[in-house]
Amino acid sequence: MTDKKSFPLPSSIEVVPGTEAAQAAYPYYAQFVPEDDGKFWFYNSMHFPEPMHHFDMITAEAAYVALGAFNTRVHVLPTAKGIEHRVINGRVYIGGVAVTDPAEIEERVGEFQQRAFYYYEHWEDLYAQWKDKMKALIADAQALPKPELPAYEPLETTHTGKGVASNHALLDIYQKQVEGYHRMWHHHFEFLLLGYGAYMTFFDFCKKAFPEISDQAISRMVAGMEAEIFRPDEEVKRLARRAVELGVDHHFSDNMDIDAVLAELDAVGNAGKEWLGELETSRNPWFNVSSGDGFYHYHRSWNDDLSLPFAALPGYIEKIKAGTNIERPTEQLIAEREQLVADYRDLLDSDEDKATYDQLIGLAHRVFPYVEGHKFYCEHWYTNLFFNKIREFGALLAEHGFFGPGGKEDDVFHLNQYELESAIIDLMLAWGIGSEPRGPKHWPAVVAQRKAAIEEWGKHGCSPALGNVPDAIDDPAIVMLWGITRDNLDAWLDDGSENDKELKGFAACSGVVEGVARVVKSVGEIGRIQQGDILVCQVTNPTWSPIFQKIGAAVSDIGGSMSHMAIVAREYGLPAVVGTGKATSLIKDGQRIRVDGGRGIVTILEEAPVLEDA
């Protein structure tokens, strides 16, 4: 059909005028080339909802290096290889590499069975081993020394015959940081796709056995999980309980000065000091979670910035004092899960089908907690540690004038990973030679230019996808994680002429809620959320859990039935619709909307009121 709608081709996307040099500074292998016009791409706003600083692109690169290796070469998924990525105007687009040749699929099935089935058979032992590996990797990163350059080498360098000067340590530390970050992503994907695979196999079985079953009903059969990523929020609830028990709850209020509150608690006597001790217990390790999803250097951890967990304390304290239950409805979810599993099992006719069903749901329950649990160790604890170690290099370079007068340690994130290594070597040379480094004359203008580019890119929207719409989306991960289906793509292409008051997406968690839409486009805007608002965002993540006590429902642009937002919404019993494609662009802040989480429909009820700034 010649009139078939399609998204813009990559070659038609222009670099925002004035930012050409900043665009060219991304690695060559992440730039669109003419051949990319023949492929389908979508904007990965789930993981990269904001323009990417140049150093932060390592979070995409290292992830896709490891994901590709495990999909394609390690576990050998039969029909899906890796994910390609490109960046333009700071926005990361991705596209899956499918396997379509039947002979190659057959060969890969044989490989997959030998590899994946071994993991499924030994899941608990291998997962315990995985946790040990991750804790060791975190310990290695924590042990890396702070990069420093003394005026003169310590005497023990000569008196012990060490034979290596301090400037060499800079290169050693930096390269170990980058290597450790890449290694973390390999650990990350060791289990993740197998966790999805077990669920997807069960999902496919259910769709064939029960043609009328909804995606949400299947997903509810694995709800009620325990995973480390929920623990930080549990710790905030624990701290709220302890504040009430110790009689220090009156110190916590909305918009509190956190430093002042900590000082007050330290001064009020034993109860205050005991609560501060409880805070320290929670912080290590559970506050090593990022306020975002772990892909941006400025999404600081709760340990670096206590504002997110402390913002939740007054609400939790108020509910505890009122006798309101603040726990996740885990017992209810498990009861519903077991009833659903039993009800659908009764619909199966043969003993063979029942045995297969039992085996598949049993495996899904065993492996599924990893799908969320790994995030605490990988995207959050390790990644936050990694960025803070890079900040130490930023501080060293700033100290030596690399970012000009008034330069800050975070300016380092405007250099890509290769440029940062070159700046480090520049400093190593200058320190050893006793001359001035070239960096102070080179980098300030570059950093200023890239700061301006990031700001400018943030003002421009972008297409949710690029290239010709494929006839079918065959990669189950792209469907279940990102929510990219043929129907959804058609909805994204809809010009709004049919019904501009209704959006469709995935039914993530049932319930019908009407309320005021609060459109949140970045982590920094979370503070605008008021009690009862409906959160409208590109994507959320488990570390936003403390705000779930405030909101009535949630809507996202991207995400499928197994996206992190969908999983978290179900675990908290929060009505939600994910994967709408364009909620943040069509819904205005302050509009009244209705969310039907059971049907996957969001309805705009009325225009936003025009309010004067207070």
UniProtKB/TrEMBL annotation:
GO terms for molecular function: transferase activity, transferring phosphorus-containing groups. It holds the Pfam family PEP-utilizers. Residues 529-600 form the PEP-utilising enzyme mobile domain. It comes from the Bacteria. This is PEP-utilizing protein mobile subunit.
